[in-house]
Amino acid sequence: MTLSYAITPFTAWLVAGGLKFLVNSIRAGKPAFGLIGYGGFPSNHSAIVSSMCALIALLEGVDHPAFGVALTVAFIVMLDASSLRQQVGKQAASINRLTEQMAERNIHRERMGHTPLEIAGGVLVGIAVGVFVACFS
């Protein structure tokens, strides 16, 4: 086992997080430290799991059992990001509206899930990182 299997998901997380901060900062017109976390473009979760799928496919082959496991986990993570966590974000928005009279600011984080475009962006980042690491392994 090479160190690339440990480096790849961390690198994908770092690249996707940096891109997300940049995109959110451009949209906000100022450094968007308050928007770091769940939700937004690109999806960190999708980048992490797809980076491992890409790395395993490139180093071990798509016929290797580890690729099947990585692909299965990737699908589960992306389905969760696009459905369950978006519903949690909608629930937080409803709670914030209900408690608006009682508090000066919303305390529940509303941006939780990912749109299909955000997931696709994370997948592209993850594949790019996996290919990059595989080239140097």
Automatic annotation (TrEMBL):
Pfam families: DUF212. InterPro entries: DUF212. GO terms for molecular function: peroxidase activity. Keywords: Membrane, Oxidoreductase, Peroxidase, Transmembrane, Transmembrane helix. Signal peptide: none annotated. PANTHER family: ACID PHOSPHATASE/VANADIUM-DEPENDENT HALOPEROXIDASE-RELATED PROTEIN, ACID PHOSPHATASE_VANADIUM-DEPENDENT HALOPEROXIDASE-RELATED PROTEIN. This is Acid phosphatase/vanadium-dependent haloperoxidase related protein. The lineage of its organism: Bacteria, Pseudomonadati, Pseudomonadota, Gammaproteobacteria, Pseudomonadales.
